[in-house]
Amino acid sequence: MRFLVPPVAVAVALTGLLAATNTTAAAADRGSKPSYRLDCDGNGPSSTCTVVATGKARPHRVEEFVTTVRSGDQVWARDTLYTRDGQVRSRPFVLPDKDVTVDVSLTSLPEKHVGTPLRLMAWNLFVGGTYNRQENTGENLAQMIDYMNEVNPDILFVVEGYGSGQKILDGLNAGRAEGDRFAGVQLTTPEDYSVNGDNLWLYTKLDIQKVYPRYADADISSFNLGGARLGLPNGKHVHAFSLWTWHDGWAYGDTHDAAVQNTHGLPRTKTNEQILEGDNLRRVAMGKAILEKAIPSFVGDDDAPVLMGGDLNAQSHLDWSEQFANAPGHGGVVLPWPYTKLYTDHGFMDTFRFANPDAGRYPGRTWSPYHGMGAIPGRIDYVFARGKDVRVLGSRADIDRLPRHRQSWLNQPYPFYSDHGSVVTDVLIRGKGTGPDREPVTEEPGKGRHIWPAEPAGRRIPPAELTATASTFKPGIGDPRNAVDGKLTTDFHSDYPAVPPQPHTITVDVGRVRELSAVRFQPKLRTNMNGTILKGMVQVSDDGITFRDVTRVEWPRMTAPNDVSLQGLSARYIRLRSDYGIGGASALAEIIPYEKA
User: Which stretches make up the Endonuclease/exonuclease/phosphatase domain (predicted)?
Assistant: First the structure.
């Protein structure tokens, strides 16, 4: 590992990676040449580092530092930071297994001409917070509004408002001071929601100067796009749009299958080219209508920032590039998705990936906290920003309820408030204003990253030496023998609808009493994760009649295997008691016992 840091890598102007390359003479001047150092916990690849940069502190001025870590054209870390004392520290990043260059730039700004901070939030609410009307008590919607207030966005882009729009506005404003209240706009008009519902909403603390009229053509309507011109406190303005695009040509499902098949050496059901064609069924045409027709008709020649958020039902070309082919869950798959690239080609920043450029370390999963995260990082929800004055400060994807809500009965069947995660981004709009007024949001590194653990220690007991029985199973396709046949493409599945209800048991006979080292429970590898076991108890027995508890388990809604150490226990039978599985069912692809070698 070498660090390439030639003098030209330490810049004194904004880098081309930001939306702006210069600031006006009245607003800023070039800072003194910054110095910096790398602070790492090791000397080679996989070391965790930060960039510590220092400039000159000046009275009544704020220093804007931009740090970028790259290998050639590949960006691995990026930060935009503001300080009055002349020193900053970037967020941690992991060194790749290649040479890196560190760029640091500095611009000095008058303390009252830094800019206006905005917190943006995009979220699909799953039929107005009702889980497709499965949750009719209203408690989930109340918790959802509580969570929105906790995030406290300045602009909230909503998809699937579906009858909850006014309740959300009332909940957001309950107890708020007059100067901190939200306004809400139903963007999907009656012409377009008469069949499906009032899909798009926009909530904001900013002054709504103009709501844009309904736009409709052959490819989109107000069900897909709507927006408003919003006034900033400094007299400037931004354009804000909520959007939703079509789900046919299921980008997540096709990518999931391809990555699983690559990882396990299974035949591919679709080529890369066939997968990419999914974008062309409707999404590419919708994107062109949004980007080349609708938004220009609203914005015209105005160069004010354009902010956009919503559910694209599309994977990102930035995530599935060659750079991340071997990232966890990618299975060597490289997919230059045409739909999301349209947004890049039209000058928009994908703010989550801009703030978190390492897609292996920060997968940004938003699909699906409810249905199960599957084997790949499903990122289909976005906040976009365009404009020379936009600075991205941080972004995160939320997929868990707030701690205070996790004691509710809702947390087990519905671990988040929707089937989509939300995206929260902090930006700064350069201009008059004192700059960031709260700590920018950050993504948790490695969230959902290590999705395929190494094989447990010991000798894998061959499938031919195993048999299995279950307390319930779906005849034929769900036979318990499928869990010990050595095939990842067959599943055990409880009878469904679940009769009897959980708990269910599946028991593996390893043929004789053995000294066992571990057991691997492999969930279904399908995008339909119904039955994936989340809570249960692992038990063992010598005679198949009397079982003793080994350990209680609680597993994530993912397709990665779950390993349990048996620490040399002697037993002939291994039983998994399924206390709770997705949909009230129990399912597994494989149970793989290991004995001491």
Answer: 121-420
Question: Residue 593's closest CA among 573, 579, 580?
Answer: 573
559: CB partners within 8 A, 6+ apart: 260, 372, 373, 374, 375, 451, 523, 524, 525, 526, 529, 532
The DSSP-derived string for 405-441 is GTTSGGGTT-SSSSSB-EEEEEEEE-SSEE---SPPP
What Å distances lie between residue 309 and 285, 348, 434, CA to CA? 18, 11, 26
Neighbouring C-beta atoms of residue 53, cutoff 10 Å: 26
Q: Are 192 and 216 in contact (CB under 8 A)?
A: yes
Q: What residues contact residue 33 under an 8 Å CB cut-off, 6+ apart? A: 10, 12, 106
Nearest alpha-carbon partner for 472 in 448, 449, 501:
501
- Alpha carbons 312 and 382: distance in angstroms, whole number: 7
**Token pair of 523 as six digits:** 């969930």
Is the pTM higher than 0.85? The answer reads yes
Q: What is the pLDDT of residue 287?
A: 98
Q: List the one residue out of 16, 21, 29 whose CA is nearest residue 68.
A: 16
Q: β-strand 74-83 against 381-386: which pairing, if any?
A: unpaired
Q: Between the CA of residue 294 and those of 191, 241, 245, 305, 413, what are the distances in Å?
A: 17, 11, 14, 16, 39
What distance in Å separates the CA atoms of residue 454 and residue 469, rounded to the nearest whole number?
27
The three-class DSSP label of residue 570 is: strand
Distance of CA 461 to the CA centre of its chain: 37
- Residue 37 pairs in a beta bridge with 52
DSSP string, 151-203: H--SEEEEE--TT-HHHHHHHHHTT--GGG--EEEE-S-HHHHSSS----EEE
Burial label, 190 (beta-carbon count in 10 A; 0-12, 13-18, 19+)? exposed
Question: Tell me, what's the pLDDT at 446?
Answer: 73
Q: Is the pLDDT of residue 348 over 50?
A: yes
Is the per-residue pLDDT at 297 higher than 70?
yes
What number is the average pLDDT over the span 401-421? 97
Distance CA 221, CA 214 (A): 7
β partners of residue 349: 385
Q: What is the pLDDT of residues 50-66, one digit of tens each?
A: 999 999 899 999 999 99
Token pair for 584 = 């009230």
Grouping H, G, I as helix, E, B as strand and the rest as coil, residue 445 is coil
Strands 504-522 and 590-595: what pairing? antiparallel
CA atoms of 539 and 48, how far apart (whole Å) = 40
d(CA 523, CA 525) in angstroms, rounded, equals 6
3-state secondary structure of 12: coil
The CA distances from residue 20 to 69, 296, 428, 520, in Å, are 19, 20, 12, 51
Q: Tell me how crowded residue 233 is: count the other CB atoms within 10 A of its CB.
A: 11
Tokens of 490: 């067959």
DSSP letter assigned to residue 219: S
H helical segments located in 300-362: 338-345, 351-355
Comparing CA positions, the residue from 134, 159, 183 lying closest to residue 422 is: 159
Task: Give how far Cα 224 sits from Cα of 132, 219, 310, 422, 469, Å.
Answer: 19, 9, 10, 18, 50
Opening angle at CA 468, ends 465 and 469, nearest 5: 155
For 319-340, how does the pLDDT look when each residue is reduced to its tens digit (9 = 90+)?
999 999 999 899 999 999 999 9
